Every structure is written in structure tokens, then in C-alpha cells.
Automatic annotation (TrEMBL):
Keywords: Amino-acid biosynthesis, Aromatic amino acid biosynthesis, Lyase. NCBIfam families: aroQ (TIGR01088), PRK05395.1-2 (NF003805), PRK05395.1-3 (NF003806), PRK05395.1-4 (NF003807). The record marks R17 as: Transition state stabilizer. It is an enzyme of class 4 (lyase). It comes from Candidatus Protoclostridium stercorigallinarum. The gene is aroQ. This is 3-dehydroquinate dehydratase. The keyword Amino-acid biosynthesis applies. Substrate binds at N75, H81, D88, I102, S103, R112. GO terms for molecular function: 3-dehydroquinate dehydratase activity. Homododecamer. Its EC number is 4.2.1.10. It comes from the Bacteria. It catalyses: 3-dehydroquinate = 3-dehydroshikimate + H2O.
Amino acid sequence: MKVLIINGPNLDMLGSREKEVYGEQTLADMNAEIAEFCAAEGMDAVFFQSNCEGEIVTAIHEARTRFGADGIVLNAGAYTHYSRAIADALPCVRVPKVEVHISNVHAREEFRHVSVLAANCNGVICGFGADSYKLACLALRNIVTKAGRA
Ligand code: DQA
């Protein structure tokens, strides 16, 4: 079981960006923590980050063919709230997807309460920092395992 973890714009700035919202951890540190968690749970994690909408669209398209992934964890950053292109990319690939956020978007500004991606994902997890990604990996594993049994 291999999970593709996609981070969108400004998430490369974790560790220095709005520490009171996103914490002190850098993206590299967070990814290392997620990779270790996945390994302990018998999963492989592969990571992709881009500040560009089209590159995120392409990474989603190539989840299986380039990354060999069985599921996608997607933190599209601010694109979550308005990118129809990323929303349309999600049903292009037949792997389960979980939308995640580090912060609790529902406790923040109103524009962050809307996700144009959520309806094209199996579920959404937000507000748990790096644990949002770990919980998403467990959710994907459950979906893939259940599908395998069906
Ligand atoms: C975020 C929340 C978004 O509203 C914001 O634009 C981000 C990060 C999060 O992980 O909490 O860039 O997706």
C-alpha cells in the first residue's frame, strides 16, 4: 500500500510561515514524521509539493502511473477553496482521496470554510496538524483493504 501525499502552495514555507497557526515544524520534518508513521503501519509514503496549480493537477493524474500510489492525501492549501481545475482532476484517477488541513479551517476566516475539492474526495480531516495526514493514511488503508475484500 503506497500513499501519495500532495502539498500545495505555501506549505513549503512551514516552519517559518504563521507559526501560531501551522506550528514550528518544517515540511521536511513533517514529511519525515509521516513517512515513519506509515512505515510502522506497513505503508509506503511518497511526497509531492508544488506552488503551481497545474503541477498539482498533473501529480493527481499521475498518482498511479508515476508515483505508483493506491491513494492520495491532498492538502491543496488555498486552492482548496477555489480551484475547479484541481476539483476536476480528482475524478480522473480511480484511487481513494482524502482532503486534509493542518489547521481547523472551520475555526478560521469564512472563505476557508468552503472546499470545492471535498465532494470529490472520500472524506476530509482537518485541525490535527501532522496527525491530519496520518489519520488520512489510515482512512485510505481502510478503504483499500475493504475494496480488496469486496
Ligand atoms: C491549509 C488551510 C488553507 O486555508 C490555507 O490556505 C493553507 C493551509 C491548512 O493546512 O491548514 O495554505 O490547507
